[in-house]
Write a structure and sequence with these properties.
Structural class: alpha+beta
Number of helices: 12
Distance between the termini: 64 Å
Strand order of the largest sheet: 7-8-9
Shape: extended
Largest sheet: 3 strands, antiparallel
Strand content: 5-15%
Radius of gyration: 30 Å
Number of strands: 9
Order of helices and strands: HEHEHHHEEHHHHEEHEEEHH
Oligomer: single chain
Length: 335
């Protein structure tokens, strides 16, 4: 984010590596309408490293950093973590290529809304009067307006910026900010592997396709075998006989004794597994339970999309209209 104009750019990278960081910085530098003079990154090792230092020196960009354990040094960026990231993206974990592409599409739309259509205010003065603090702000202006008024842009960059603004539709761009986390709840893009080929697939968006997807997931749930929740642990112990080999320093003790640990009504229970056949059987049941959990999550997500897309029934609409048009039986009080 540019401190002077509040111009914001977001770029999603696949991993916290030096190469991915360099590619993300190159993409941001190609989009911004001005020359970057200084970088002030977070104290993360994925950002502050030898590659970034060489990157800044080769491109004649100054570099500064925050003091350790002083988060207010990075306040301009930290406050955008909520308004520009979590408020739109949500807290869902994104860990595959398809979701990376969707996140980049989100940032491409979001930057247009934040930079061209959302005004910002700059603090001009702050005065304490008694127990209250009175703050004065300047007139709200968008980052686009602040850049044009700054006089720091070249004629070519200013012309391109004006032409880009004239091509934009504010209503369409603002739809990305309809609700917290709305972008991913409406796009619903996930990486799923088909049974045969293992190729990435997108969850369909039409109502008919979603119903087929729900039926397919229900069929997969019904086809599961025996399942149970829990985990398998192995324990070793020493008996009370002082001459037993389990008391020797180099001996781990009697065992290992495999046990199945699970919870019943919030209480932890354990069950002994006598032999290798019982252990293999419990592993298969636990694996089936994990498949059930993944299918259950997918079923709920698809069902939520169906509820969102399905229109109201005609009978329900007529009943709602009757309730609105039905006169009240209450007697009006006449003064």
């Amino acid at each position: 984010m540019d401190i002077a104009s509040s111009w914001w750019e977001g770029e999603a990278i696949p991993a916290r590596t030096q190469q991915a960081t360099r590619e993300g910085l190159d993409a941001i530098r190609r989009r911004v309408p001005f020359r970057i003079q200084e970088l002030h990154p977070d104290n993360d090792s994925g950002l502050i490293n030898d590659l970034l230092w060489r990157y800044c020196r080769q491109r004649q960009i100054r570099m500064s950093r925050s003091r350790p354990y002083k988060k207010n040094d990075n306040a301009w960026v930290e406050q955008r973590n909520w308004t520009h990231v979590r408020k739109v993206e949500g807290y869902r974990r994104l860990d595959n290529t398809a979701e990376l592409l969707v996140l980049r599409e989100l940032y491409d739309r979001l930057r247009l809304y934040k930079n061209f259509f959302q005004p910002t205010m700059k603090l001009q003065s702050k005065v304490r009067v008694g127990g209250k603090i009175h703050r004065r702000y300047d007139e709200p202006r968008t980052p686009y307006q602040r850049l044009l008024e700054s006089g720091q842009l070249s004629r070519r960059a200013e012309k391109q910026l004006r032409e880009q603004y004239e091509r934009l539709n504010g209503v369409r761009v603002s739809k990305v900010m309809t609700a917290p986390g709305s972008f991913f709840s409406h796009v619903s893009v996930r990486m799923r592997y088909a049974r045969g080929g293992g190729h990435p697939m997108m969850i369909p968006q039409s109502l008919e396709a979603l119903e087929q997807q729900r039926a397919h997931v229900s069929h997969q749930i019904a086809a599961l075998g025996d399942l149970r929740c829990g985990s398998i642990t192995s324990t070793s112990g020493r008996c009370g006989k002082p001459n037993c080999h389990s008391h020797k320093p180099d001996q781990p003790g009697h065992g290992p004794n495999p046990r199945l640990t699970f919870k019943v009504q919030g209480r932890t229970r354990t069950e002994s597994l006598p032999d290798a056949a019982a252990v293999n059987k419990a592993k298969r049941e636990i694996e089936e339970f994990r498949k059930f959990q993944a299918l259950q999550k997918e079923f709920l997500e698809v069902n939520a999309q169906i509820c969102h897309l399905r229109p109201l029934e005609a009978d329900t609409l007529s009943q709602q209209e009757k309730k609105r048009s039905k006169p009240s039986n209450r007697k009006r009080r006449v003064k």
